[in-house]
Structures are given as C-alpha cells and as structure tokens.
C-alpha cells in the first residue's frame, strides 16, 4: 500500500518549523518521514533546517530532475527531493513543508494528498514576524493583509479537502491536533 503525502502549508511565521520539530519523534514513530527542503537561502540563516544552495546550484538540480516538487516564493527557490516518490511507493507517509501558492500543482501530481493548513491569530502572527526581524513593519502589515485574503480563499476553494490547525496557543496542543488529524485521516 502506497504512503500518503501530507502537505503542510501556512503563512510565514505560523510556526510550521516549530511544529515539525516538536512533532518529529511522534511522526517517526508513526512511520512518517519529514522532508528536508532545498532552499536558495544560506544554511546559516535562521529558520528551518533546510539544505541551503545557491540559485545556480538550485537551477542545475532542478534541470537534472532532482525535485519531485519545486517552486519560487518570496525571492527564494524551494525544492522537495524526488526521493519522496520512492518513500511513498514503499508505503511511508511523507510530510512536506509546502507552499500555499503551489497547492494546485502539487494536487495535480499527488491527487490523494492530505492538506494541513496551519493558521495563527493575526495579532500573534504580527508579533512573531516582528520578532523575526526580517521585514519592515510596512512589509509585515502588507504580508498580514495578503495572508488574510489568501487563507480565506484557500479555505473556500478546498473545503473538506483541507484540515485547519490553529497554532495560536501552546505548541503542544497543536502537535496533539496534528497527530489526531493524521490518525483520523488514515481511516
């Protein structure tokens, strides 16, 4: 039996990396692999434990078929290694930190994927983005406005095919909801 692709999406600052780190052991115990993305951001940059490559390296990898999925967002390129197809074929579940904007293309390639949308209260998200210090306050406000519109449209367009996880409270609660969602969707 083939594994399932679990596609975690959410706005920058929603806590996807924190959630994955906190749930890593429990997911592994359930036979779920967490994919390490390839990103054109320095490996020393603060954030997820991704494989950092130069834009030129990324372009060469993409041209050589190294990625099952790839996209560009916020001035960066992201790639999901093609080995996920082997893991899925072997029956492993695979969790990907994906892109909301790339969801339609991902669904075309993996029509049975499970989509998890991580949300967070706008005030909490604002605090997290300010604390990160990567953007100006004006950029953060613009990002929050885009996020609100994008999230509403995403939920409306995907309905029952989308599981929403609110990460505004304690991370342990979000981990618990994530695991319950995965367990209930396995039925």
UniProtKB/TrEMBL annotation:
Its EC number is 2.7.4.23. Keywords: ATP-binding, Kinase, Nucleotide-binding, Transferase. It catalyses: alpha-D-ribose 1,5-bisphosphate + ATP = 5-phospho-alpha-D-ribose 1-diphosphate + ADP. ATP binds at residues 10-17. GO terms for cellular component: cytosol. It comes from the Bacteria. GO terms for molecular function: ATP binding; ribose 1,5-bisphosphate phosphokinase activity. The keyword Endoplasmic reticulum does not apply. Residues 2-186 form the Guanylate kinase/L-type calcium channel beta subunit domain. GO terms for biological process: 5-phosphoribose 1-diphosphate biosynthetic process; organic phosphonate metabolic process. Pathway: Metabolic intermediate biosynthesis; 5-phospho-alpha-D-ribose 1-diphosphate biosynthesis; 5-phospho-alpha-D-ribose 1-diphosphate from D-ribose 5-phosphate (route II): step 3/3. Belongs to the ribose 1,5-bisphosphokinase family. Catalyzes the phosphorylation of ribose 1,5-bisphosphate to 5-phospho-D-ribosyl alpha-1-diphosphate (PRPP). This is Ribose 1,5-bisphosphate phosphokinase PhnN. It comes from Pseudomonas extremaustralis. The gene is phnN.
């Amino acid at each position: 039996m083939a594994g399932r692709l679990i596609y975690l999406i959410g706005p920058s600052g929603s806590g996807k990396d924190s959630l994955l780190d906190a749930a890593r052991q429990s997911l592994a115990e359930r036979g779920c692999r967490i994919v390490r993305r390839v990103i054109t951001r320095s490996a020393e940059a603060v954030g997820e434990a991704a494989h950092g490559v130069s834009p030129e390296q990324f372009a060469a990898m993409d041209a050589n078929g190294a990625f099952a999925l790839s996209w560009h967002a916020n001035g960066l390129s992201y790639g999901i290694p093609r080995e996920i197809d082997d893991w899925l074929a072997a029956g492993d579940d695979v969790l990907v930190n994906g892109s909301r904007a790339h969801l339609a293309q991902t669904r075309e390639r993996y029509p049975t994927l499970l989509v998890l949308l991580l949300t967070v209260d706008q005030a909490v998200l604002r605090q997290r983005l300010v604390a990160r210090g990567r953007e100006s306050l004006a950029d953060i406000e613009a990002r929050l406005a885009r996020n609100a519109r994008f999230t509403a449209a995403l939920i409306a367009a995907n309905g029952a095919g989308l599981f929403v996880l609110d990460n505004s409270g304690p991370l342990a609660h979000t981990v618990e909801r994530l695991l319950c969602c995965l367990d209930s969707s396995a039925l």
